[in-house]
Design a protein that fits this description.
- The protein has 182 residues and is mainly α.
- It is 80% helix and 0% strand.
- It has 7 helices and no strands.
- It is globular.
Length: 182
Amino acid sequence: MSLAMTLGMTIGVRKTLYMMLGEIFGVALVAVLAVSGVASVMIQYPTLFAVLKWVGGAYLIYLGIKMWRTKVHIDLNSSITESEITPLKLICQGFVTAIANPKGWAFMISLLPPFVNIDKPLPFQLAILVSIIMLSELVCMLIYANGGKWLRRILNKSNQAQWINRVGGALLAAIGVWLAFG
């Protein structure tokens, strides 16, 4: 969601749709793998889950510090060139973000297995679950991307982007600490 909001602020909602496409299919892959057995592997190898938790937490702390230190200036008149941001790069960024998110894996592994009835055909159940997840993910990312577009206008008028960036960076680092130690 943070990526959708950030891209909504920087490149606009229409171009952010490419990232959303990759993200949705990445989340779908995580959901399918969670239902089809990754949950049992993660339960059998809790050390692997702990390592993923620490790596994910360290990465979020790194991103928070980087965000805190970044100088921010939002210019509504500037545009990012097509060579910098391509649809393929955005799709890949969304996909990698979804499959590399340890919180997403933990959420899917803990949420989905109880909804699966082993006495009924798995493909139909999985299709329904994944469809609901993909739709809700898309709706939420659209809300965040549009919020980012709105926030860009507000921050450009009030010149408060640096303050917001530091608060966001501190919160991201705090989430990283919580993930690593929680």
